[in-house]
Structure prediction request, 111 residues.
Amino acid sequence: TVDVTATVSAKSSAKNRPADQFTYKPPPTVTLLSPKKGSAAGGTAVTITGTNFTGVTTVKFGSTNAASYEVNSATSITAVSPAGTTGTVDLTVTTPNGTSAISTADHFTYD
Prediction:
């Protein structure tokens, strides 16, 4: 939580009032996929472990939306992979607070 301060003509607003408090909410993170591989035909149920999964709006395998997903908790999602092409893609999770950063933990490989 931080104070929001406005400065006009070298005068600043008062600090430490509840009305000027702003809380940053972190974006989701993906820390583990299980399994990490699936068929290029799609249909693999993948458990996504991470943080800040409240309010998920999108789960993507590369640039393609998951066939379906269910948020189990703020740290777990079950998603079904869409059809894809052979190779590795990044699985990302999006909430109103942003999209998970790309990392090696989010790699999903289509066989």
About this structure: The chain has a mean pLDDT of 91.
